[in-house]
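Troubleshooting log. The previous structure file for this entry was overwritten by mistake, so regenerating from the original sequence record. Sequence copied from the archived sheet and checked twice against the printout by T.R.
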Amino acid sequence: MTPEKPRIRYEDEKHRWDRNFADLLQELRVAQTGIQILFAFLLTLPFSNGFPRTTPFQKDVYVVALLAAAASTAMIISPVAFHRALFRQGRKPELVRYAHRMATGGLAFLLISMVSSVFLIVDFILSRPMALLLGGATAVFFLIFWAGIPWYRHNWIDEDAEEEDEEASGEQPPSGARPE
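Regenerated output below.
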């Protein structure tokens, strides 16, 4: 018994932009939660008992981590404000493109904040060489999963399988529609 082949759905351009925006909002919800937790931690850190023992360099790293988390928060949340400003103006394609750029920028600032936070904590509790090693490893780890793997796989489309699916389903796209 062979598994059933997935059917290709066709959608018009308006529905595609709506779906793209909904997908992007779901992704931003995941990122926003992580940023809020990190940002809350960074906001409370100066009020902890051990903070006065930090060196001036560690305080500088802290400021970088805090400002990067703030920038990330602003960029990840900005599509909501942009949507409110453009609500019911029929500018969904512009909104999706803007939201994509803001999400990408927000993730870049999140990377900076995460790496800076790891560096700061390891530098505080262990040593500067260990902080450099683990901070660098953290950056590499994030870059592999956030940029390397997606870039490496972005062209992995089995075009033959797509053509077979279309032939087997007997579906033809409506005029002007594109496959998902």
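Helices lie at 13-44, 56-86, 92-125, 128-153, 159-169. Archived copy saved in two places this time.
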